[in-house]
Design a protein that fits this description.
By secondary structure, chain A is α+β, with helices and mostly antiparallel strands. Chain A is built from 2 helices and 5 strands, in the order βαβββαβ. The radius of gyration of chain A is 13 Å and the shape is globular. Among the domains of chain B are: about 15-215, 3-Layer(aba) Sandwich (Rossmann fold), CATH 3.40.50.300; about 465-645, no CATH class. Chain B is elongated and about 95 Å long. Classes of the chains: A alpha+beta, B alpha/beta.
């Protein structure tokens, strides 16, 4: 995995499109496990709340299961069920990787 | 509640006076099967099967009491991100309509840890509620556990475990409904803050002795193949090809049965009805017309059977996952794929399913694309025309050539739909936010036979309704147009017709009918495509509903040679003009016809549903205009290209 630097906008949020934080669900490789730190969706609190309703709440463990043939979307295991997210949404969920 | 309606024979109380019970829950929670189990076959599930987007209402009878039951749109939360979720919230708030008296919160026991957040949000609304736990059998099988009574205590509301498709727990749920007005509400409303809510969920679940289900072994093993980057794609295309091969080959013997039945029926009419006019109207128009369309009932039922099986097994969401990136190319998302896939059955459920799309731009683009997907109504037309074009015995590798041509037409529809969606997305209104995409991957499950049969029955009954109304009316009117004005024997003899030869008489009558006049009137439009006036009449009559084309061709052919309409089509020749005497159904003409039907919007019901869904005449008119023009241009192209190959 290549490391990336982010240019921060005036509001302190990363400026690059679709990237909401340092390390996100979109950066996980298949069968990696991570813990949700925060969900940030600039300009759309309803989408942020929906991601929380889907189970992506701070402290929750998420496991990346697989990618689609064209590498997007991805399937995650969260709160005992499987859900498919596009990179654009997955990159709004900030995580820290945990070793299992 | 009064006990006024307990005597049978009394006029039933109007629906609006009954207690209103609404089902809420996540999209895959099994809401629909609980709804079906409560309301049975008396449910008013709308005209079109395959969607749970629109509001379905029915009544549930428990002893002498009746309840109005409503199946609300599925959602993961009460902060709406789409139109149908807005409907859900509006209903719960009583915003513009009557709020339900009581709620049944349907929850999949295997996703309880996530679903409890939704339960918390719904309970916070303060309506009398009962939690309905589904898939408890699966939870136990996967070594999970939950104590239903303890869960009820912890939540402070009644909890009933049901296995919707088996009917377990439904009796208990009905009993529970009787006490709806006495359902306890939680003493303390669940917390609103997501962090606190997680803590609340964990405490409730631990009190209820909840053990999460183990990962579903079969699902893991199947997904390793079915969602594999290469294998999964291969399997996806194989499933699609097999799907259409099955629809094509398995239906054949059933269709022969239907055909034989109507043959016997029309033979009976011609023997027992002596009045030639009545005999013609009954035999040719009614039995010939309706029979010619009913032949396709087995195919349509088979198509819906396969679609609802794939849906019920859980393969549809896998297909959406595999296809999402491709849909992304057209600016659409996975949910639009599901809408477009439903349009393979019928554009109407497909267009109605666009309600799940949160963005208005996506909705319009999908609606404009949906009529291009090969709907079941095109199937009869394709079957007849492919039958004329391709030898049934011809094969290409292991596959029949007829099936492959059919697959090609489905592919043409799908690719054109994607291009249309892309164009409307690109050049349409550019306002609005990109919307989130998420899709639950349910474990592979055996679909309940009841749900599958209901879907097939829904499709069959709406097709039969269409046959008995629009198609009967169109074929009758057409028969009259084809047989009027009346000609006296002297007139015909004066025109040099041998009045003793019945085939010559009917050829003369059809050739001088009002329908022929109309067909010839539009001839300049369709001449470049190689259509003669009889095909024109068929194309015009198909404008209301595509299947009518088959009935019309049957009538035209039967009118010219009542003995054998099938061969008559093959031997039909141009009756006038520069091409007089040449066969009509040559490869270039059939190709042009097939392509014309692939593109043209020949379905008044679709026009109507686009009008209803968009609330304006603008979009149905745009769809009609662009599809008709494209149809003509593409048909011309198909004719020219085929002529080059055939020589």
């Amino acid at each position: 995995m290549t490391s990336r630097t982010f240019e921060l906008g005036t509001d302190g949020r990363p400026r690059s499109e679709g990237r909401c934080g340092e390390r996100t669900l979109a950066d996980l490789t298949p069968s990696a496990t991570a813990q949700v730190v925060s969900v940030s969706v600039p300009d759309s609190p309803a989408v942020a709340r929906r991601l929380a309703d889907l189970g992506f709440t701070p402290g929750t463990e998420v496991r990346m299961l697989r990618r689609a043939p064209l590498r997007d979307p991805m399937i995650y295991l969260v709160k005992d069920y499987e859900i498919c997210l596009r990179r654009a949404q997955a990159s709004c969920v900030n995580v820290v990787e945990v070793d299992r | 509640m009064s006990s006024a309606c307990h005597e049978s024979g009394q006029p039933a109380a109007p629906l609006t006076q009954l207690p209103q019970v609404a089902l809420v829950g996540a999209p895959n929670a099994g809401k629909t099967s609980v709804f079906n189990a409560l309301t049975g076959m008396h449910a008013k599930t709308g005209n079109y099967p395959g969607v749970t987007v629109s509001r379905f209402a029915g009544t549930c009878r428990v002893g002498d009491r009746r309840f109005a039951v409503e199946d609300l749109p599925g959602s993961y939360g009460l902060d709406p991100v789409s139109l149908d979720e807005q409907v859900l919230v509006d209903v719960l708030d009583g915003n513009g309509m009557r709020a339900p008296d009581a709620l049944l919160i349907v929850v999949d026991a295997t996703t309880l840890r996530r679903s409890m957040g939704f339960v918390a949000q719904v309970l916070a609304r303060g309506l009398p509620s009962c939690v309905v736990l589904t898939f408890t059998d699966e939870l136990l099988r996967r070594q999970g556990a939950v104590d239903v009574d303890a869960l009820s205590q912890a939540l402070g509301v009644p909890v009933v475990a049901v296995v919707g498709h088996r009917g377990h727990g439904i009796a208990e749920l009905r009993e529970q409904l009787l006490d709806w007005s006495d359902w306890p509400t939680p003493v303390i409303s669940p917390p609103e803050d997501p962090g606190e809510r997680d803590a609340w969920v964990e405490s409730v679940l631990s009190y209820a002795g909840y053990g999460a289900a183990q990962p579903h072994g079969r699902t893991r093993r199947l997904d390793a193949v079915l969602l594999h980057p290469i294998l999964g794609t291969v399997v996806f295309f194989a499933v699609m090809v097999l799907f259409f091969q099955t629809v094509f080959t398995l239906a054949a013997p059933l269709q022969e049965g239907v055909e034989a039945f109507f043959g016997v029926l029309s033979g009976w009419v011609s023997v027992h009805v002596t009045n030639p006019w009545l005999s013609g109207l009954l035999g040719d128009a009614l039995i010939g017309g309706v029979g010619g369309v009913l032949v396709f009932l087995p195919q349509i039922m088979l198509l819906f059977l396969l679609i609802s099986l794939l849906e019920g097994v859980g393969y549809m969401s896998r297909a959406a996952f595999l296809m999402d990136r491709v849909m992304g190319r057209a600016g659409l998302e996975g949910r639009a794929f599901v809408a477009l896939l439903s349009s393979f059955a019928c554009a109407i459920p497909g267009i109605m399913a666009t309600r799940t799309l949160p963005s208005a731009r996506d909705r319009i683009a999908t609606m404009m694309a949906a009529p291009l997907m090969t709907c079941a109504a095109r199937l009869p037309v394709y079957v007849v025309l492919i039958g004329l074009l391709v030898d049934p015995a011809a094969t290409f590798g292991p596959f029949g050539l007829q099936g492959l041509v059919m697959f090609g037409l489905y592919l043409l529809g799908a690719v054109s739909a994607m291009l249309a969606a892309w164009a409307f997305k690109k050049f349409g209104d550019r306002r609005g936010q990109p919307t989130p995409f998420y899709l639950e991957m349910p474990p592979y499950r055996l679909p309940s036979p009841r749900a599958v049969l209901l879907a097939v029955w829904g499709a069959a009954s709406s097709f039969l309704r269409k046959c008995s109304t629009i198609i009967v009316a169109t074929t009758m009117v057409l028969w009259l147009l084809l047989n009027l004005p009346l000609h006296s024997t002297e007139q015909m003899q004066a025109a040099g017709v041998d009045t003793a030869d019945s085939a010559a008489v009917s050829a003369y009558v059809v050739d001088h009918s009002y329908a022929a006049g109309v067909g010839r009137l539009v001839a300049p439009v369709f001449d470049p495509l190689g259509f003669d006036w009889r095909i024109n009449v068929g194309v015009l009559s198909a404008q209301s509903a595509r299947e009518t084309f088959v009935a019309t061709l049957g009538q035209v052919a039967a009118a010219e040679d009542p003995e054998d309409p099938g061969d008559a089509l093959r031997g039909m020749t141009y009756s006038d003009g520069p091409r007089a005497g040449q066969p009509i159904f040559t490869a270039p003409t059939i190709a042009a016809l097939l392509v014309y039907f692939a593109f043209a919007l020949q379905c008044m019901a679709t026009v109507g549903v686009i009008r209803r869904e968009t609330g304006t005449w603008r979009w149905p008119l745009v769809a009609f205009g662009y599809l008709t023009v494209t149809a003509w241009l593409m048909a011309y192209l198909a004719r020219t290209v085929t002529a080059l190959f055939v020589g």
